[in-house]
Amino acid sequence: MRSLLICFFAFLFTLPSFAGVSLPKFFSDNMVLQRETEVPVWGWAKPNESIKVSFGNQTVSTQANANGKWIVRLKPMVASHTAQT
Predict the structure, then answer these.
(1) 63 or 32: whose pLDDT is higher?
(2) Burial of 85: CB neighbours in 10 Å, binned 0-12, 13-18, 19+
(3) Does residue 5 have a pLDDT over 50?
(4) Which candidate in 36, 40, 49, 73 could, as Cys together with 45 as Cys, close a disulfide (CB 3.0–4.6 Å)?
(5) Going along the chain, which residue ranges are E strands?
(6) Is this structure's pTM higher than 0.90?
(7) Domain spans, the chain
(8) Mean pLDDT, residues 66-74
């Protein structure tokens, strides 16, 4: 019983740390991106929440505005037939 209570309270304290970040539905698996041009990635989160977007060897950070909107731009990438995440 004690271990169950400990797990319950640990779960309660971790709930606020889950990000409420959402993206438009067209950002999905097997998506094809334009080569040799900046790629905008945007979405919604809690106001002033820190956002980090990683793709390939790039990581870009930003912060959601007071309305929860955010946008980052990935640097231009060369053409590749190899899948990236």
Answers:
(1) 63
(2) exposed
(3) no
(4) 49
(5) 39-44, 50-55, 58-63, 69-74
(6) no
(7) 20-74
(8) 97
